[in-house]
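Quick one before lunch.
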Amino acid sequence: MVSEDALVEARSLTKVYPPRGSTAEFRAVDGIDFTLQRGESFGLLGPNGAGKSTTMRMIAATSPISGGTLRVLGMDPMRQGPEIRARLGVVTQDDHLDNELTVRENLHIYGRYFGLPRAVIRDRATRLLDFAQLQEKAGDQVETLSGGMRRRLTIARSLINEPDILLLDEPTTGLDPQARHILWDRLFQLKQQGVTLILTTHYMDEAEQLCDRLIVVDHGRIVAQGSPQELITRYATREVLELRFRLDERDIAAEKLGTSVLATGGTDTDGRVELLPDRVLVYTADGESALATVHAMSLTPLTALVRRATLEDVFLKLTGRSLIE
Ligand SMILES: Nc1ncnc2c1ncn2[C@@H]1O[C@H](COP(=O)(O)OP(=O)(O)OP(=O)(O)O)[C@@H](O)[C@H]1O
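Model of the adenosine-5'-triphosphate complex:
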């Protein structure tokens, strides 16, 4: 039974890639459940190979499901692929823009693909160029655009059919910080206009900015779901003391700190220490007093920073791995 207003509903959704050559079959998505309501921005978060793109392709009706059920806009992707695709905007990791055409021509071609009348395409293309801040580039060949502009054009193009849902697979991977911020701003504007976003990302700040709700996936399974703040409250301590040590001091410092954090366990039950290749993280309710403990132990970190817990910390706790490998 599909709940009212559910734009996407997955139950025990599974994807098994068949064996190829000497490679055995592979369970890329292993029985996941989620429901996406209209107007809600939804994120799939996880490391490389977690099954995010595979899930997106099943929602976009471009890859058949292997098990469970999936409804998209109330329809069955296995039987109603064209109807579903007509109402989606899809931004894949590769943009597939036509480099030899101009920016505006790329929008027009896509409009024709959806069978839209010429006058409608012209109007929408002008509005979308404006939205993507590419008016001045309208007549330029796509191959002359920067990475950030290409991404904005890809997103503009995906909106030509005025989709109900916009699927974005790692929208800002590979962009510089300024280009990412411009893109976030554009996506945030879309969200405010009522477009439902589904996005995959490795970036915690992106997920925190854009997603109302998240599923964290690892090895094809959901390891947690909730709003960014709920996940942080549920899985991470309030504060993190982030320390960098000289390499020869790092392991011994982590060990000593681990013992001291465990010793304070009575009041700080989630306290723990994580040793990363470049940092030692102390999870604690009170970062400043943890730092005082560090100094009292005569440890000499090169840098020490007290910060609030983020989704990155949630992920590390849930999977024992850092998101960007
Ligand atoms: N066509 C395919 N045939 C066989 N295995 C595949 C195929 N596509 C993906 N896989 C495997 O399925 C797993 C999940 O891949 P997927 O691309 O969905 O992960 P992801 O979470 O999107 O990762 P990334 O962040 O790297 O894009 C990976 O181990 C991948 O190698």
